């Protein structure tokens, strides 16, 4: 590899992934704020939440704009929520992590998947719902990408029974296996959580989980397979338990605890952990467990 290529791979591309993530995070803030209200994410342009004054272009610079204004609006001096730069920074860091962890093709799919997780988690946190366009639409998108990018499920997508290497485009056996892996993840993930919700409702005599969470786990399974969906359910429950236990420490008083803690953000965090770091560990553990049962 020539020195220029080495520089691009080692510095420019990761920096580009971070900057792209910050810009996408700025757009995700708009999606999180407007879509639950049924508003367009394109028009009108960004305005001050306090006085309604249109924001200048340089005020909308991801991360930088908030820092330069010390977290206050230029037009009226109103305080701007730190969650806006937090979402931008979170998205930038996740885009950087996914770029450094995978091939460019899988990284591109991962950036899209993680963006869906961020939007779903924050909308659920704010409104207690996860819109169908995220869950059902995301599940359909996950199935399509599982077919087109079998690497998403650990498959190489080389020529097989369904195509030839000399053709411009083909579906190999691995492409079909990738699609089946996504479909399996969708059905098993949503099915497992649905049964957990039904049993919990029977025991508690009240609704224990929204159906949006069931569809959300199905979407996660379409991207991550059944292992990722099941991991997200149980790891999300652990994260939720830890979060509830630590919340009084940060809030100071138990009276400030919310009456209901949405499960969506926990599922999104667990799915992120699985996609970026835990997939190989989970699959090795399951393979060892299956081998022990077989012995």
UniProtKB/TrEMBL annotation:
Residues 19-102 form the Prepilin peptidase A24 N-terminal domain. It is found in: Cell membrane. GO terms for molecular function: aspartic-type endopeptidase activity. It comes from the Bacteria. One of its GO terms (cellular component) is plasma membrane. The chain crosses the membrane at residues 12-33, 84-102, 108-125, 132-149, 179-204, 216-249, 255-277. One of its GO terms (biological process) is signal peptide processing. Belongs to the peptidase A24 family. It comes from Cephaloticoccus primus. It is a multi-pass membrane protein. Keywords: Cell membrane, Membrane, Transmembrane, Transmembrane helix. This is Prepilin peptidase. Residues 111-242 form the Prepilin type IV endopeptidase peptidase domain. Its main location: membrane.
């Amino acid at each position: 590899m020539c020195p220029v290529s080495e520089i691009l791979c080692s510095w420019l591309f990761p920096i580009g992934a971070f900057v792209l993530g910050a810009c996408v995070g700025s757009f995700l803030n708009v999606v999180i704020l407007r879509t639950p209200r049924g508003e367009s994410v394109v028009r009108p342009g960004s305005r001050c939440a306090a006085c309604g004054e249109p924001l200048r272009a340089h005020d909308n610079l991801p991360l930088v704009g908030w820092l330069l204004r010390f977290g206050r609006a230029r037009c009226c001096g109103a305080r701007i929520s730190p969650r806006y730069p937090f979402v931008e920074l979170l998205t930038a860091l996740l885009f950087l992590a996914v770029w450094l962890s995978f091939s460019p093709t899988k990284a591109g799919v991962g950036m899209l998947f993680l963006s869906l997780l961020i939007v779903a988690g924050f909308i659920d946190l704010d409104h207690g719902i996860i819109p169908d366009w995220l869950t059902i639409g995301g599940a359909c998108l996950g199935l399509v990408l599982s077919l087109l990018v079998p690497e998403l499920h650990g498959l190489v997508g080389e020529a097989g029974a369904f195509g030839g290497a000399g053709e411009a485009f083909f579906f190999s056996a691995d492409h079909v296996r990738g699609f089946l892996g996504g479909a399996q993840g969708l059905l098993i993930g949503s099915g497992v959580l649905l049964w957990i919700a039904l049993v919990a409702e029977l025991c508690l005599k009240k609704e224990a989980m929204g159906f949006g969470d069931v569809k959300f786990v199905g979407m996660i399974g379409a991207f991550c397979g059944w292992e990722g969906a099941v991991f997200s359910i149980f790891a999300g429950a652990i994260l939720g338990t830890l979060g509830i236990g630590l919340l009084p420490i940060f809030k100071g008083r138990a009276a400030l605890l919310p009456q209901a803690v949405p499960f969506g953000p926990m599922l999104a965090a667990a799915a992120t952990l699985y996609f970026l770091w835990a997939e190989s560990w989970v699959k090795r553990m399951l393979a060892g467990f299956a081998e022990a049962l077989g012995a």
